Amino acid sequence: MDLLNNMRVFVRVVDCASFTAAADALDLSTAQVSRLVADLEQHVQARLLQRTTRRLSLTEAGERFLLRSRQILEEMEEATAEARGAHLKPSGRLRVHSMNGLGVLITPLIARYSELYPDVVFELTLSQRNPDPLEEGHDVVISIAHELADSQLVAQSIGQIYSVLCASPAYLQRRGVPHTPLALNEHQCLRMVDPLYSDEWVFQDEHGEQALSPAKTFQCNVAESMVKASEAGMGVSLIPFYTATRPLSDGTLLRLLPAWRPRQRTVYALYPSRRFLDAKVRTWVDFLKAELPRLFAEHEAVMDDPRHWA
């Protein structure tokens, strides 16, 4: 039995004060309406209506049940309208996960998005891993990968990133400037410990690739700490380009081997489903697709400025 539907029929019968009138309003037969009310009474184990040839009247149990039925049906209508509205108007809590450095970078974008959609409340989680949105309850995961494994998640490409080699002026004055990737074997190389970074450093230019496995010296899993180690003159580091922007602009680091670029990786927005996509997820992903490449371009302008090269 469809309990909610039977409750709607019961309420309509009371409002119309007639089985026949209710049947006309609901586009049902009088027999169908009578059966649905009878099924409802059987379900609640109480008579709800007193029926005579001339009129209908509510029993005491029917009066109580009518009041609660109206409340339940109104709440259901409100809940349905709210759920439908979630696909139309961005609102509610938006749970976003991102890798640490990239999450810090996009925080100003969150502020700008919030100005456009003030009814959305952000819950940003940062870590050095790519979680499963379905298992951990994230609405959107901003992931970085060379390529994605097969999954049922929707993956939207929202930008490309790469890393740059950097060292402090003081270090380069002591040890000299490397002019090829292989020359890095003669230098102190600081290593990122991160699932996205392999033990090999692979560089590409117009002629091909060169790969090397730097000796393990200082290791760290946070790019911002790697910047500090490099600024302190500990050695050469390979860090995300957007993390290098500030120290390059300040002159505390210099970019090395600008003609050689490590392999690019793609930034993805991952979310569970396209069907009935929540408006806050849709608008946030669309916003990232438009704004993140522009933000990356601002950082790349610093990377490509020869004034910041060794």
TrEMBL record:
Q: Which GO terms describe its molecular function?
A: DNA binding; DNA-binding transcription factor activity
Under SUPFAM superfamilies, the record lists: Periplasmic binding protein-like II (SSF53850), Winged helix' DNA-binding domain (SSF46785)
| InterPro entries linked to this entry | LysR-type_TF_proteobact-type, LysR_HTH_N, LysR_subst-bd, WH-like_DNA-bd_sf, WH_DNA-bd_sf
Q: Which residues form the HTH lysR-type domain?
A: 1-59
Sorted alphabetically, the keyword list is: DNA-binding, Transcription, Transcription regulation
Pfam families xref list: HTH_1 (PF00126), LysR_substrate (PF03466)
| Keyword match Transcription | yes
**Superkingdom of source:** Bacteria
- Name the family: Belongs to the LysR transcriptional regulatory family.
Q: What is this protein called?
A: LysR family transcriptional regulator
- Organism expressing this protein natively: Pseudomonas silesiensis
